[in-house]
Amino acid sequence: RKRITTRDIAAMRQRGEAIAMLTAYDATMAALVDMAGVDMILVGDSLGNVVLGHETTLPVTLDDMIRHAAAVKRGSARALLVCDMPFGSVTDPQTALESAVRVLKETGVEAVKIEGGLAMVPTVERLVAHGIAVVAHIGLTPQHVHQMGGYYMHGKDEASAERLRQEARALEAAGAFAIVLECVTPVLAAEITRSLTIPTIGIGSGKDCAGQVLVVNDLIGLNTTPPPSFAKPRADVAAIIKAAVGDYVGETKAERGPIPLPRRVD
Length: 266
Ligand code: KIV
Ligand code: NA
What we know:
This protein is α/β, with parallel strands linked by helices. It has eleven helices and eight strands. It has a single domain, classed as Alpha-Beta Barrel (TIM Barrel). Helix 2 crosses helix 4 (62-75). The longest helix is centred in the last third of the chain and has 19 residues, at 237-255. The site of 3-methyl-2-oxobutanoic acid (KIV) has 11 residues, from strand 6.
């Protein structure tokens, strides 16, 4: 099957078909979510938390993203692939361009995603001018966690709401083909969605975005800590793994013993 393109995504928005997006970080998970029919796969820098065991996404490197995005590309066949630009890889438009060129050349993904609002407008323009497909990301932007002072809902007061409206408009004008709204109050997310031509992709932002994205581990219950409240797990894969491994350990010890003792080597 042919891969979904940015034109297909634009067409879905035009005909009112919701866009289903999930993260993946490795070839096996990419193959599974791809076969199950997601439209877009995000190689998120949530890799830092989910796969690498960091507290935040800040330690994730461009090389980390490239290694995992290349694996996701090898595992998938149909979904449009988006790779997050990690913290420190987009410090100015030229650096961002060089980072994004590496991502596209070394992984084969179709698009990159950049966190940030008005400060990122010149960067998005620069990448788009070079033919790179860009997803924007506003609201809760985890790379800004220390500046924001934690993870919380955005757009609650009028100043914050007006800022988000402005950012969404400016990033669309800069040429982004989609925009992630993370933890934006649902009423504002719905309003921004109606005000744009490009699709909004919501996470923790209510039902009325043009699409949804989730960390795949939160969707399938493949976690050791509780997922965010907006992620409703549809399976308990952690429990399945623990049960299977527990059985394996038990059987190995109970059914294979007693094993003849080794020759003493003293
Ligand atoms: O890194 C990530 O997983 C993300 C989303 C969930 C939007 O950026
Ligand atoms: Na991310």
